[in-house]
Amino acid sequence: MPHSDAAPQRTILLTTDLSARCDRALDRAVQLARSRQARLVALHVIEPSLTAQLITPTWRKLAPDHRSLAERRLLDDLAESGVDIEVRVEQGKALDVILQVAEETQAELVVAGVARDETLGRLLLGTTVEKLVRHIPVPVLVVKERPRHPYRNVLVATDFSEGSRHAVDAVVNLLPGTPFKLYHALELPTATGVLHTQTLINGFRQAAKQTGEEFLDDTAGLQDGQRPEILIEIGDSVSLLSEYAYKNHVDLVAVGTHGLTGILRTAIGSIAASLLENLSCDVLVVRQPHDADDEI
Description:
By secondary structure, the protein is of the alpha/beta class. Helices cover 39% and strands 20% of the residues. The protein folds into two domains: 133 residues, HUPs (Rossmann fold); 133 residues, HUPs (Rossmann fold, 3-Layer(aba) Sandwich), CATH 3.40.50.620. The protein is elongated and about 70 Å long.
C-alpha cells in the first residue's frame, strides 16, 4: 500500500447521562463534529451505584438491558447526524471511564452537558463535570444553551497570563475564522487609604489595555490579521462577566485554568468554578498542558 501522509482524523468525545438537558450537548457536539469534519464518539457510562441500588432479584438482568437501551438511544439520536459516529456504553466510575476513553480516542475536545436545573434557571454542574474539568488534559466544553446556530459571539476571559493564551489558542483551533473578544475584569487594590479617583482608575485601565496589547503581540496562534478587541471592566470578575455575557447574548466563554490575578486566580478553584455555575452561556475550560495531572 502507498504511504499516506494524511493527518489523523479529529475526534470529539461527547459524554452524556441521556437526560433531556444533555440533548443540548449532543446537538452541539454534532454541530462541531460536522463543521470540523471530525469523528464523534458518544459515551454513556453506567456507574456501579446504579446497579447497586437495585433490590429486585432480577438486577443482574437489568444491567445488560440498560446497556442495550443506552446504545439504541444514542444510535437513534445520532442516526441522521451526518457525521462519523461511534457509540460506546461502558461500566465503571464516570470520571475514570471518560478519562480513559478520551485518551484511547485521542479526543481533541470533550463535550458535556448540565443535567440538573433549579428554580429561576440556576444551573448546577454535576459532580462528574466538575471533576472532569479539574483532571482532563484536553479542553472541556460545558453546554448549557440550545445550539440554535454556530458560535458567533465568543469571549475569552483573560488575565493576560499563559493560561489565558492556551484558552485563546483553543478558541482559534476549535472555531477557526470566528471572531472573539478578550474580557478582562480589573479588580483594583483595596489597601486602606487608597482613593480610587477617576484619574487613578483610568491609569489602571490604560495599563491593563497595554498589557493586553502586548499579550496579543506574543500570541502566535492568532490567525493572520486577527486582532481581538480587548474589553476591560472594573470590579468583581464573576458578577461582571456573568452580567456582560447575559446582556450581550454571548454564546461561549472560554476560560484558562491558571492565571495571575482576577478571573483565573485559583486554577479552576472558586472563581473559575463560580463562572461555570453562574454563566448562562456555554463555557469552554482549557487546562495548561503541564498542569493536567495537578491536584487542585
